[in-house]
Amino acid sequence: MADFDPEKFTSEPCKDNFYDLRKDELILLVKHLKLEVKKKMRKHQIQRIIFKHLSHDFRPHYGKLGTLSSVFPSAKIVAMTATAAREYQSAITESLNMKNPSLVIANPEKANICYEVIQRPSYVKQGNVDQFEELLCPISEELITTTVRMPPTIIYSSLELCGVGFAYLERVLGDKQFNPMDALKVPQNRLFAQFHSPQTDMMKSEIISSIVTESCTQRVIFATVAFGMGIDSPYVERVIHFGVPRTMESFLQESGSAGRDGRPAKSTLYFNNNDIGANIERMQPIMREK
Question: Can you give 105-166 as a three-state secondary structure string?
């Protein structure tokens, strides 16, 4: 077995063997190591290769995994994903150079998640901002009362509404937004956070590292689709969508963040006709149906 842990390849002798070695990723373009690995494979000294870590920003480098089939032509390839539409299944097999693969497909629905769909008024004087703040009112009250005992909750919305939600909780909670109240007023001690692409990698990593722990201080995460992949926390109990995701795949990925521990969880989607009309050209037909 060859165990490729990026942290083990930080010494200068190891670095010399690679064309490209970056933090949290190992690009399989090797000089001497490729020949050495092939020798070991011919002697049946390598049965499988395990990559321990995938960072949350793995997408740009996913296409490079196809090089594995040329380096290890006799190796068996298994691709696993929680959700993949039919067109994405083809893209995965092509990018990994898989020839006539066997497909094992299961229903992605989780029996422990209670799904709820609630239609919001479409034509009202108040816009999305006011409706969003109305939704957050009971959440803010629960956060004040229960603090770190509140079930971890992810709220998916647009980038604009992420900022609106964050500012609303800042305003309503005041000094109570930090736990304990006399703690340093730094993001790590705040009861809520926001996660989206404009944030720095360090800020994203801190949120991801926090939410996968039972003692997580951030009990409410305002997130865009940037938070949908690579999150595996057994402690998230609620996922709320304010608006309709463009694809069923996205909805299943995001709502599936809840109930990873197998205990009862809840997924709630709030929508109105304006949400659908604004994204109708980019939305899958199944997501436009009521």
Answer: CCCCCCCCEEEEEEECCCCCCCCHHHHHHHHHHHHHHHHHHHHHHCCCEEEECCHHHHHHHH
Find, among 258, 285, 286, 287, the residue nearest to 271 by Cα: 287
Structural tokens at position 47: 């049965």
Amino acid (one-letter) located at 250: S
pLDDT tens-digit map of 50-107: 444 444 445 556 666 777 777 677 777 788 777 777 777 888 788 778 888 888 888 7
Annotate the chain with DSSP letters as a single string.
Answer: -EEE-GGGG-SHHHHTTBS-EETTEE---BSHHHHHHHHHHHTT----EEE----TT-GGGGGGGGGHHHHSTTS------S---HHHHHHHHHHTT--S----------TTEEEEEEEPPSS-SS-HHHHHHHHHHHHHHHHHHHGGGSPPEEEE--HHHHHHHHHHHHHHHGGGGBSSTTS-SSGGGBSEEEE-TTS-HHHHHHHHHHHTSTT-S--EEEE-GGGSSS---TT--EEEEES--SSHHHHHHHHTTTTTTSS-EEEEEEE-HHHHHHHGGGS-HHHH--
pLDDT tens digits for 93-145? Answer: 887 788 888 888 887 778 999 999 999 877 655 568 888 999 999 999 999 99
